[in-house]
Amino acid sequence: MTSLEYEAPKAGTKGTVNHASFPEAMFGGFLGIGVIFGAWGQASYVDYSKCYDISNLKKCFTFSPVEGINAFEHLVFYVTVLMLAVFIGSLILGHIVKKRGTADPSIVDRLFIVGFYIIVLQLQLRIQWTMERAIDCF
Questions:
Q1: CA 48 to CA 98: how far, in whole Å?
Q2: pLDDT at 74
Q3: pLDDT score at 92
Q4: Is the separation of the CB atoms in 28 and 20 below 8 Å?
Q5: Which residue would you say has higher pLDDT here, 2 or 28?
Q6: How high does pLDDT run on average in the chain?
Q7: Cα(44)–Cα(116) distance, rounded to whole angstroms?
Q8: DSSP states of 62-123 as a string?
């Protein structure tokens, strides 16, 4: 687990792994996210103007289906919100709570554990509501 690896170097070592600096990590993260968002936008899977526009932002903060927004666009919006919350939480834990001077690396473990269930829950609710609406039409 990565949360245990960052507490202290192993006994008898000086910490032999050179980690990326904070600016390098941020650049890599933003580059990776930018490539993914760009690919989704170019492939016409996501229309970012529907949920990321300031005027439409409020209507996307619901788990129920929103008119004109498909399930994948809604999921991308929630993954973005989760990603920002984890990033801000990591900075708060690392700088303020643990006073390390860096972001909290143990947040990665929590993201993989909790994030998966949040995404599955959102998709499950979306499918359930879509099926209920389809049944009500008959």
A1: 36
A2: 81
A3: 81
A4: yes
A5: 28
A6: 75
A7: 24
A8: -SS--TT--HHHHHHHHHHHHHHHHHHHHHIIIIIIS--SS--TTHHHHHHHHHHHHHHHHH
